[in-house]
């Protein structure tokens, strides 16, 4: 296993797919406050899709992620695209970066996995007054073929203090940001996962998506077989003969630092 569970599998297979949401998130930040010449931090940046989208817009960008393997890929992508981005391997909620150094903070499906109180405090510390925050988050959905089979086979996960999709709950988001942010805007969207075949979708879960790779890694042989069967059945319901496709709701949240 790598430096974190996110090093398992091939995260870039996920990152490439959801790069369109990174682009929407950065575009939302740019509409609120032009990013050309601005200092921007991409928190829990993964392989850098949001950071690169900000760099394309002329921002001075720093990307932060806990997983060194993902930072290495982000560095390669930035170099290949000819963008000068600073990359930092650090906890998104404890970056070590200077206070009040940034005009904007962005995150594409990243900080939603970090303890929210620590994360919001760190974002507030990093941003200048009137700076922009723009993040994306998945929204809880019934019938999720990426999640429901795990519950069916392994049982519901232990009750946690927070879950990533809480950032898709408008009331909770506004409550979390109320102390340090104003003008909170939450825009819904729908992302369609597409795979050429059922086998390709299963390969993505077993060998590429870090979250699923970690689930399979921790399962015993019997559980693995049951997981594969459960995922196959769930995904088959979304196979239209030309491939597997299903929708996942998400939101893009923007706000202004007080």
Report on the architecture of this protein.
The chain has 258 residues and is of the alpha/beta class. Helix content is 41%, strand content 24%. It contains ten helices and seven strands. It has helices spanning 11-17, 19-32, 49-56, 68-81, 116-126, 148-154, 170-177, 198-208, 210-218, 221-236, and strands at 39-43, 60-65, 86-89, 102-108, 127-138, 181-195, 244-257. The chain has a seven-stranded mixed beta sheet with strand order 3-2-1-4-5-7-6. Helix 2 (19-32) packs across helix 3 (49-56), helix 6 (148-154) packs antiparallel against helix 10 (221-236) and helix 8 (198-208) crosses helix 10. The N and C termini lie far apart (41 Å). The model has no long low-confidence stretch (mean pLDDT 98).
Topology of helices and strands:
Layout: H1 11-17, H2 19-32, E1 39-43, H3 49-56, E2 60-65, H4 68-81, E3 86-89, E4 102-108, H5 116-126, E5 127-138, H6 148-154, H7 170-177, E6 181-195, H8 198-208, H9 210-218, H10 221-236, E7 244-257
Parallel strand pairs: 1-2, 1-4, 2-3, 4-5
Antiparallel strand pairs: 5-7, 6-7
Helix pairs in contact: 2-3, 6-10, 8-9, 8-10
